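Page 37, top half.
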Amino acid sequence: MAQSISEQEILNALKVVKDPDLNRDIVSLGFVKKIKIDQGKVSFDLELTTPACPVKEELKKGCEEAVRKLPGVSHVAVELKSHVSSRPQFGQTTVLPQVRNVIAVASGKGGVGKSTVTANLALALSDSGAKVGLLDCDIYGPSIPTMFGVRGKKLESTVDQKILPLKACGISLLSIGFLSDDKTAVIWRGPMVHQIIQQFLTRVEWGELDYLLLDLPPGTGDAQLTITQTVALSGAVIITTPQEVSLIDARKALVMFEKVKVPILGIIENMSYFGCAKCGEVAEIFKRGGAQKIGDEYKVPILGEIPIDPHIVVTGDDGLPIVRAEPDSLTAKIYRMIAGAVAARMSVSNLTLSEAASLNVQWQNK
């Protein structure tokens, strides 16, 4: 006769499995759902805070091993699920109420490949199973329409005059490039920039999204101020190249977000090195390690290093970023790894803010 197993015994066994990013066991985090016991067969769902969790397979394996050690267990089945964690303001604000996380991608200066990085991160998050949107906030130099092959497409609106984002590659997209042609220069002063960005944030039917990435223009000016004053940002990602001329402006972007109390999720070093496909030699064309230098200085994590890859340019110009055009390439794999790191950092930040808010409510009720 098979030894009976209780649900509590299973939960106790699973307490040894810890999420390395959240630094807590999966039971106290509430990840274990729908436990079923059929004699010696045990099954349950492991519900993570993002489908892009970089350690989901390791967590699944850890669960199987922990439960299989219990006397009387003959079989363990773990099904991976996800429920994306949300910023504290999710559902409580009139601006983007259905967007769980609003992430600004900034660089401080132009020419570092920020839009290319943003486009590929958006696709990597979408490929993991998340609902993703991308807002091109670069009013003077929009490039997202080209990268997603939707140049010349026009926007439509709802009956109540809300703008509908375009859909491309499974992502909701919005850009000033959809409102003007490639040969028209946008010659606007600050108030006009402020107005259009506000409309993009408040008059657009984004629908329910797990992540909305904001591709910010270079600098720390009108557009950035409008965004931070209009929407409760969940976090910011800083893009830089290794050389000092880029690091100077990346520092400024980082400090700006710190001043307006937006969590810095991490730094990405773009154009970090060039790896020759034929000989395997690695050339550090712009030096290397600049992002690590800032990370150490401001105690901010490094999310990853992206190599110089000619295919990134070709695929972006052809209207299908490399993550989707060449999914098996090394560069695409690096982008997916970085997207997982961004999602993990976002989950950590949300948990920290949520617990802080809960403690504050408890203190006020005393």
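Page 37, bottom half:
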Amino acid sequence: MTRRVRLGVAGLGRMGRLHAENAAAARGIELVRVVDADEGLARRMGEELGCAWSTDYEDLLADDRLEGIVLVTPTPLHVAMIEQAARAGKHVLCEKPLAFAVEEAERATEAAARAGIKLQVGFHRRFDPDWVSATARIRNGDLGDVYLFRTSLRDMSPPSLDYIRNSGGFFVDMTIHDLDTARWMVGEIAEVAAFGAALSDPSFADVGDIDNAVVTLRFENGALGVVDNSRVAGYGYECSTEVVGSKATVRVGDHRRLHTTWLSAGGARLDWVSDFIERYPQAYRLELEHFAASIRDDVEPAVTGADGVAALVLAEACRRSLDAGRPVSVSPAAGAAEAGSPRVASR
């Protein structure tokens, strides 16, 4: 029987609870402890999932049984907590983004590398079977030369303004998923041009953010890309991707709960998922199982800290493009090209 990898979860908000529940149910994982600053929440989750609980992150670090930590805490805490985990010899799966600033994210990856721990970043789309299958076939040459990448990420309704205010901005919070997907499916990105606006509610602009954006991409291999994002799509949650090549085109994006269509006079109706958790339950399970397997088998995770840094660099480039009203070039950083970490070039 496969050895069970012993994990703990820090942070029991919506995503933290999902990860904890998945860890408790996974055959190859033993959920040892959950931690949250809210004592009542930590106790309730611990009792429900049959594991130890506490309110102190130090308890995870000091637990000799623990091999890895799933970090689902506020982004400003990520770097320090990864550094602490590295000193304690605990592997880390960190929800995106690693940090709000590239230099801080690099600190986290460097700390992990020095300590020899695994650092996986939570880009769940890389574990969704539909995206994985499409990307594998692109790698195999089934698509031919890539001409165009297009992706949409749209929320049904926005999170609270308190969340928006502390999210790191639209591109770091939302578009970063599409930027990582673009790098993964097509290759490194040489240039971005971002356009955005606060259209549904002036409160977005009041907190210095936007609610809709379009980003154009130019890849290093010559392909072009378009990303469209919305926090206020209304009809439901959508995450879809299309890649056009010389031999074929692949489209990914199944958002229906049931594969039925109701036809009535003059119209048709089908159902639609409401958010990312409903769309990606399998991806989140596979992401966690992959993290455990990387610890058990001592292999590098499929989504590394360098990938997290690279996506953050691109998100920052989008913000610079929006602010400046012009395209921004991105090029491999000196000394970081091997890790695939691009940097915004001076212009």
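Margin note: Residues 128-278+307-344 form a domain with the Dihydrodipicolinate Reductase; domain 2 fold (CATH 3.30.360.10).
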